Amino acid sequence: MKIESFLKDVGGASRVTAARREKFRKGSPIPEPEDPIRALSDALHPDKIRFIVTDVRDVSPTSKTWRLRSTDGHIPIFQSGQYVCFHLQIGNSVLNRPYSISSAPFESKCDNPFIEVTIRRNRPYFVPDYFFDHVKVGEVLWGSMPFGTFYYEPLRDSKNVVAIAGGSGITPFVSMAREIAAGWLDVNLTIIYGSVHSSDIVCGRELDEIDRKCDKVKVVHVMSDDPDWQGEKGFVNREIIEKYSGEDTTYMFCGPYAMYTFVEKTMKEMGVPAGKFRKDAIAQPDVSLIPGYPSDKKDEVYTIKVMRGIHEDIIQAAASEPVAVAVERAGIALDTHCRGGECGMCRSQLLEGEIFVSPIGDGRRRMDKELGWFHACSAYPMSDLVIKIPIL
Ligand code: FES
What is the reported pTM? Predict the structure, then answer.
């Protein structure tokens, strides 16, 4: 913007106002049915994407990667670290589940664009079971456009990134490593990846190949219970993190809650400034791990009256499960994205009763706290409730 002088600038602004008035005066009172800007915006940022599964492959004894193409051929731009939220109907339950995209952004911009998600099933889990047992090549899945704030941002983050991952928390960094190896992202990435046993490593072959071929990506595996492992052993600790950290580093974390509590404490001990430690949304853990959860209530079952518009439903909810899970199990649609209390998509209103709000990732605004709004994915019933959820 060029600044001329006070009078010229003010004069210019008033000429713009006059020109706009004139355009309004001449404009038709009938709304223009064609809105190319709106149409372009909707096409670039669709609410929902219809995906088709084009490939499923094993990436560890307990993990698979699903390759998905959009049926209209367009995949919105995203950054390594963002996720897609799948809208699923499993039996009578209507639910959403976010999965980090494990493919690289450049792969969604090529001639045959696709994204991939990688899911681990090391014990029975509702949604991973569904993917492993039912989502085959040719299956159609509905998902959101990519969301999330956990990605490398050159204006904020250092060029040296140490990624700390546990279990399936490796997937955002697989995406990032692919993007760097293909020359689309100029970052020096060291991945410190904690697993129990070498057979648990997700995408290990691919990561090790990138490590061999690309001098900007280094992968350090740390095994907590594998006597034959020749590399780093034990849990990811301060000594290991410092050993592989250089000057001016941004740390990024994705993994289970138990690992997060330890890594967060270690970051504080190392004096890492808050802005240099970034974490992905943490899924709510077992209630026994949530600080402050009243464990004497965990076996209780309560009744929730769920109101949305003119509809009212009465459902049952265990005190040990988030309100969102009880709502979804009852087949009531509730929009959720992060499932970790941060994004606010599941924001609902508490009209009667008591809830426990998990302090892990509590992203409520101050006014919401005061006025009784809560995030259903991270709130637990502590009595019978009356709640109001958004109409979808
Ligand atoms: S889904 Fe993000 S806050 Fe509940």
Answer: 0.87
Which ligand 1 atom sits nearest the alpha carbon of residue 338? Answer: 2
- CATH, range 295-388: 3.10.20.30
345 lines ligand 1 (CB under 6 A): yes
Asked if the model's pLDDT at residue 7 lies above 70, the reply is: no
DSSP per residue, 77-140: ---TT-EEEEEEEETTEEEEEEEEB-S-GGGGSSSS--EEEEEE-SS--HHHHHHHHH--TT-E
If residue 251 lies in a helix (H) or strand (E), which one and from where to where?
strand 249-254
- Residue 23, pLDDT score: 86
Selecting from 3.30.1490.20, 3.50.30.40, 3.90.1740.10, 3.40.50.80, what CATH number does the domain 160-279 have?
3.40.50.80
Q: What is the best residue among 87, 338, 389 to mutate for testing ligand 1's pocket, by most ligand atoms within 8 Å of CB?
A: 338
